[in-house]
Amino acid sequence: MSRLKTFLIYVLIIITFFIVSLVLERGLIENMYYNMTGKINNKLDYSGKNVELDINVTEAKSTNVNGVINFSVTNNSDTYIREAYVKILLYSKSDVLAITKYIEINSLSQGETKNYTLRFKGSYIKSYDMSLEKEFPNKEYIINFFGYEFNTKDIFGIDLSKYINKDTLSSFGSSIIYTVRFVFKSIPAWGWFLAWTIVAGVW
After folding, report:
1. Cβ proximity of 131 and 87 under 8 Å
2. 11: domain range?
């Protein structure tokens, strides 16, 4: 009987510890999130009409590694929206454009409301800009550079897409790899041994 009682006590301790851990973990995660600020442009040029859709952001928060934006779109116009996109620009704490996302809106009837969620990965995303687009853009000119997205057709107002694209970057990367391999192969064994002895002597 005493063993059963002891066993039940251990089970209760484990369950209590598990519940407390969940509560503390949830509280820690909530404290890591901070609210994002943003701007919304709800005007859409759709089939020759100037349509306004009501975009309501219910939650926008991020951490140093990821974030989430929950929002709804209501069609208050008299136009049926067959297909459109919400363009979301995400900016870092330095006000640098870090991420560009598109959320598809389809089959949105007059007076209808739909909810959407955007989950993203990014470091210290502080703010967002939301707008409406009729078509999905050509992302051929969007280059991701260490987590930051750049439009090569508009770098400080200059179109550099002819000089900076996936082909030229791939060629440049291949040249760097080839050069590094060539240098490493050119160093004789005694050179590697000498470098090792110098490093070992320093440390």
Report:
1. yes
2. 1-32
